DNA sequence: CGGACGTTTCGACGACGATCGAAGCATATC
DNA sequence: GATATGCTTCGATCGTCGTCGAAACGTCCG
């Protein structure tokens, strides 16, 4: 009866490895041209074009034409969320730990998700903020910022009151890809990452989504938040 | 980089219509035997068995053997969440409204989901119950029944106090497929549908899951709940 | 035990769809 | 205009997977 066209249909769109690779490449919200997505998926331009058309129809992507390029991006945050939730499902068997590339390791350690901090560092920081009572989980996947929290952010030069909440609130809980936990997102999350970068605690890579923790940043995070992390290079993987 | 090997794999498990139907049948957390799932998906027992084995491997289902039955259920709340988020993705385009068969139209208008009311009518009624303050959304996808609500149900001859809550509560929020919203489920939902049928407001079809709204029912629902709906036969699509 | 029932395994068939080569369009560059 | 580049459409091939019939396995019941 096909009462659920969207459901299985959407899943089948994600099910193809090539399409999944493209979606993953787009998950941080960037817009990429078709050719680059083809490269990311390891397929020819023709095949990629066909896939992109399907994802477009399926409501997973949006596209903007600019000159002779066509830039594709996720249709919205709800798509990113759905993808992230999908990733929480794992095969039951103890999946053999694959040896990760150094890059993958760094990416897992700290990266930007849209414009906020994600990865082990992002989750650790968010946990610490909660433990200190600076932010508290609220309904609808949001965080409330406490008075103490506003003061603490202020000490970093981040004026919480100056931030303009979007329709979805000031601070949101964003499910973390690799860590299976939440990290800080929303306008506060964006400002937080920017503040930490400006202060020289973090460094964003230009080419990828990797975020590096500087020695200075490591020290400050430990002192101010009690967050103690190993740099990516020392992680087992 | 294959940071998420299981990603496309999990999606492909959901992508099959038969498997999707089984997952949907399980989305409220109940455990169902293989045969019933086969029936729900409209396939033979052999085929269903193969699908169930895959879903099991994929970490989407758990199973408990009891006598000669095998009861399958979702592997956890995270699976249900992922499924629901998937359902939020819709084709962008007001996809050319397919001419639905009269049956599909009726099914979309009102049907029973297990033993409670679903479809446009189910969602409308549930929304009205919330607006009137008779039920309020609670944690863990449950509804709480207010004192006013208990009184209102009592006026219908439905004694809320006489209902025995299951382990999952007295009233639950069940995701509605076609309407992309929640409707009332759980013991209260079951009793509600039964009461409305007994009162002659609704009529359940014996062969299918279609539920018909009688003229009397239409009038009563409008007066008592402020619910105003068009009968299925007058709907456009 | 023997028969009924629920479930799984095996094998074969058939259809859907992912893929790429070749060609067609559109835009940019000279 | 002519040519290169980025992307899409068309057509054909091929592998994969969903499907069911037949049969085996296990449990319940008389």
List keywords for this structure.
elongated; alpha+beta; Arc Repressor Mutant, subunit A; three-stranded antiparallel beta sheet; 2 domains; DNA-binding
How would you describe what is shown here?
2 copies of one chain form a homodimer. The first copy, chain A, is α+β, with helices and mostly antiparallel strands and 237 residues long. Chain A has 2 domains: 5-86, Winged helix-like DNA-binding domain superfamily/Winged helix DNA-binding domain (Arc Repressor Mutant, subunit A, Orthogonal Bundle); 102-234, no CATH class. Helix content of chain A is 45%, strand content 18%. In chain A, a hairpin with a 6-residue loop joins β10 (202-204) and β11. In chain A, α2 (17-26) crosses α3 (34-41). The radius of gyration of chain A is 19 Å and the shape is elongated. At the A-B interface, α1, α2, α5 and α6 of A face α1, α2, α5 and α6 of B. Chain A binds a DNA duplex (30 and 30 nucleotides) through residues 16, 18, 33-35, 38, 43-53, 67-70.
């Amino acid at each position: 009866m096909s009462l659920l066209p969207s459901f299985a249909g959407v899943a089948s769109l994600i099910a193809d490895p090539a399409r999944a690779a493209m979606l993953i490449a787009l998950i941080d919200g960037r817009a990429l041209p078709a050719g680059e997505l083809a490269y990311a998926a390891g397929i020819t331009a023709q095949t990629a074009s066909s896939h992109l058309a399907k994802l477009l129809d399926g409501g997973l992507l949006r596209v903007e034409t600019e000159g002779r390029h066509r830039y594709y991006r996720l249709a919205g945050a709800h798509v990113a969320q759905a993808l992230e939730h999908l990733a929480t499902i794992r095969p039951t068997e103890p999946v053999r730990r694959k040896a990760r590339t150094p890059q993958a390791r760094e990416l897992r350690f700290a990266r930007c998700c849209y414009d906020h901090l994600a990865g082990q560092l992002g989750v650790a920081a968010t946990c610490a903020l909660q433990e200190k009572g600076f932010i508290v989980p609220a309904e609808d996947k949001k965080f409330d910022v406490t008075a103490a929290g506003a003061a603490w952010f202020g000490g970093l030069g981040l004026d919480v009151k100056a931030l303009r909440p979007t329709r979805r609130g000031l601070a949101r809980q964003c499910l973390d890809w690799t860590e299976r936990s939440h990290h800080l997102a929303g306008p506060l999350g964006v400002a937080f990452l920017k503040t930490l970068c400006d202060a020289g605690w973090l460094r964003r890579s230009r080419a990828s989504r990797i975020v590096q923790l500087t020695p200075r940043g490591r020290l400050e995070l430990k002192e101010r938040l009690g967050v103690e992390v190993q740099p990516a290079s020392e992680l087992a993987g």
